[in-house]
Amino acid sequence: MWAELELLQSGSDGGTERPVLIAVAHGSRDPRSAETMSAVVADIAAARPDLDVRPAFLDLNAPSVEQVVDAVAAQRYTHAVVAPLLLGNAFHARVDLPGILAAARARHPQLRLTQADVLGPDPQLIEALRDRVLDAIVERDGDTDRIPGGQAFGRNDRIGIAVAAVGSSSSAANARTAEVARRLAALTGWRTEICFATTEPTVTQAISRLHARGADRVLVAPWFLAPGLLTDRLIAAAAELVHADVIGPHPALTDVVWDRYDAAIANDLALSA
């Protein structure tokens, strides 16, 4: 199967086409979000310059998924892998995007559209989240780390991380997201608590829990790919704390997206075998 996958991606022998990658971001009214996701997709494309990579947005930004699929079909491609740049497997990944692709298949029956898995709490992305926290801790002296904004962390301080995600109306989805905080704790030894921008536990509740667990200093680590209104809401709710950057362009994110692309093609091959 993997030999077939390599052939499919190489584009050699028998005119085999290399599937286009359509990288689908959420979309936002905040221009910082589209700017960040454009940089993310640029990194994705640069990692495999021999493949065609197209950005698309589910909502509020252009180009839309429909526009990109129509353009791909007009260029007579026969296969595209649609990779949702989404951290959770909620409504957009399970209902919204499949519905868009079903309608696109009806318009373009000659174009095979394969939806890849969401990014999820991939171990590589947990490492990226750790990197963003460490980026916020700038070494200053031999025995002290200083956080931009004025907070000093002694090397023996007990660090607490409030991992802040979007939140969902689904308690099961929120429970899955909480796994991110647990994995970050396992990776780093830091005390962690999950919190959400749109539901409970709130960032304030997570901070209180971390202090109750003995954390001397608390940082907020946004489990977001891009900044926007919700990350601003989190900052306003805990303005006294340092907030790490969103994941944004990061080598781990690029690698995970290509992993999802390869897995989607491999799964197609297995199903057709």
Keywords:
single chain; Rossmann fold; 46% helix; alpha/beta; elongated; 273 residues; disordered N terminus; 9 helices; four-stranded parallel beta sheet; 2 domains
What would you note in describing this structure?
With 273 residues, the chain is α/β, with parallel strands linked by helices. It contains nine helices and eleven strands. Strands 2-1-3-4 form a four-stranded parallel beta sheet, sandwiched between helices. Strands 9-8-10-11 form a four-stranded parallel beta sheet, with helices on both faces. It has a three-stranded antiparallel beta sheet with strand order 5-6-7.
Q: Could you give the order of strands across the largest sheet?
A: 2-1-3-4
Structural class designation: alpha/beta
Q: What is the CATH C-level name of the largest domain?
A: Alpha Beta
Number of helices: 9
Q: Can you write the helix and strand succession as a string?
A: HEHEHEHEHEEEEHEHEHEH
Tell me about the largest β-sheet. Answer: 4 strands, parallel
Give the number of domains.
2
Describe how the helices and strands are arranged.
Elements: H1 2-10, E1 20-25, H2 31-47, E2 53-57, H3 65-74, E3 79-84, H4 91-107, E4 112-115, H5 123-136, E5 138-139, E6 144-147, E7 151-154, E8 159-165, H6 171-188, E9 191-196, H7 203-212, E10 217-222, H8 229-237, E11 242-243, H9 251-272
Parallel strand pairs: 1-2, 1-3, 3-4, 8-9, 8-10, 10-11
Antiparallel strand pairs: 5-6, 6-7
Helix pairs in contact: 2-9, 5-6, 5-9
